[in-house]
Amino acid sequence: MFELELSHSILLVFCLLAACAFEFVNGFHDTANAVATVIYTNTLKPWVAVIWSGAWNFLGVFAGGIAVAMGIVNLLPVETLVDQNVAHSISMVMALLLTAIFWNLLTWFFGIPCSSSHTLIGSILGVGLAYSLLPEATSEAVNWGKAQEIGLSLLISPLFGFSVTIVLMYVIRTATRKTDAGETLFKEPKKNQPPPFWIRSILFITCTLVSFFHGSNDGQKGVGLVMLILIGIVPAYFALNVNYTPAALPPSLVKIEHVINSIDETRLSEPDRIKLVDARVRNTRLQKTFSSLEAINQIPKATRFEVRKDVMLMDRHLNSLIKKEEVRISVNEKKLLKDELKLVRKVTDYSPTWVLFLISISLGVGTMIGWKRIVKTVGEKIGKEHLTYAQGASAEIVAASTIGLSTYFGLPVSTTHVLSSGIAGSMVASKGVKNLQPDTVRNILLAWFLTLPVVMVMAGTLFLVFRSLS
Fold first, then answer.
1. How far apart are CA 312 and CA 327, in angstroms?
2. What pLDDT score was predicted for residue 349?
């Protein structure tokens, strides 16, 4: 398969199945958050809720684009980590997969709403940092610019969810004060009795939106993970989008060259000057490659990864340089450069339809299994009171909005943390901080703080062990 030896083909299949397993675990681990409110407010029966949520997760993966997936792929610059030894690539992939799956299962077993996003990103960072310790590491093994973007997204999103839910609860309470609707919204649901139709409709819609946007964001992380596996192990087949028509690339590369030539090298530091020269060399090489091509599949398999490397490193160098004060180019030139680089990146930023389908199925089926532990924590253990209609709707409206916006900007966020923080915010809005259950909040915060360092150490250690055996 893909011209690999039998043993490597078996390992590739195993890695792809492990990626599906990660997304499956993500389904029953994270998506339980989407159905907790409709279950605990008696809006939907549990099995109806999880099947409905699973279906919308499936659709979300297809509709979400690939911006988040490429954010995951670009966090670990495989163009610097991959070499001719397939076993080295498999070591990288196996280390981050096994770590991510183990930590997700461990936190699920204890019913702790831990973030699959943190887990996957921590695993990727751990592998990258471990690689930088190897003697053959000559360049950055982690895209720190992308890591900073993702880190801020993961940090700000739960704080946003917590604070905005408090504000929304206040607005709803103020708007419905002294009305029958207000009394109904802030009452504890009656046991086994569904809410009034209008409340049920709101909660049904918010559950659907959270499920859809979870698929469009978290599902894309699984897509990114599969693309990391394919690019790392069989780059000859997946380093470039062979279905892309390269006619627009030569003109874009010429425009990029004009901007590069307008940058005054004398104002740059030595490292930045090296980046600029390297970007110019790679641009020239890419122009030569694409000038006579009618289709990407005309590029020999043996050189496709090198072409990808040229595109990725040119993009990274130039995006880094235009942020520097020393690089004095006009606003229009900066915009032109970003637009043309984005167009050139279409040859590297893609995902085959079968990968989307594979992850959609894994996430959708995972949603329907094993959801009870996390649902119980979200519905009963964050606050000291039973979830009211207003609390459930507020938390899910904020969660859906936050996740949807993050997907639009291509940033991964944690559905778990956004919704859990929203539930916590709704509890605080009702009766203050005393309305939170300290043990559960402590466990969630502990998992939040521990996940990154623990999985980074685990993934890095496993990578070095596997690498030494390969």
1. 20
2. 92
**Residue 30 — pLDDT band, cuts 50, 70, 90?**
low
Residues 465, 459: Cα–Cα separation, whole Å? 10
Q: Is the dihedral of CA 162, 166, 172, 178 positive or negative?
A: positive
* CA 102/CA 22 separation, integer angstroms: 9
Sequence-distant (6+) residues with CB within 8 A of 244 are 296, 346, 347, 350
Task: Count CB neighbours of 192 within 10 A.
Answer: 6
Output the six-digit token pair for 171: 């607005």
Residues counted in the chain:
470
Residue 139 has a pLDDT of 67
Per-residue pLDDT tens for 273-318?
999 999 999 999 999 999 888 899 999 998 999 999 999 989 989 9
Nearest to 33 by CA among 385, 390, 357, 398: 398
b/e map 218-230, b = 16+ CB within 10 Å: bbbbbbbbbbbbb
Residues 6+ apart with CB under 8 A from 370: 28, 29, 108
pLDDT band at 31 (very low <50, low <70, confident <90, very high): low
| Angle of CA points 218, 223, 228, to nearest 5° | 125
- Supply the pTM of this predicted model: 0.84
* 3-class state of residue 112 by DSSP: coil
Mention every residue, 6+ apart, whose C-beta is less than 8 A from residue 398: 160, 161, 164, 165, 168, 418, 422, 425
Nearest to 189 by CA among 296, 47, 36, 328: 36
Segment 164-197, tens digit of pLDDT: 999 998 888 888 887 877 777 877 777 777 888 8
CA geometry: angle 311, 237, 215, nearest 5 deg = 80
CB 454 within 8 A of CB 99: no
Tell me what pLDDT residue 218 has: 81
Question: Of 413, 422, 457, 440, whose CA–CA distance to 219 is shortest?
Answer: 413
pLDDT tens sequence across 362-381: 888 887 775 565 565 555 55
Asked if residue 387 lies in contact with residue 417, where contact means CB atoms within 8 angstroms, the answer is: no
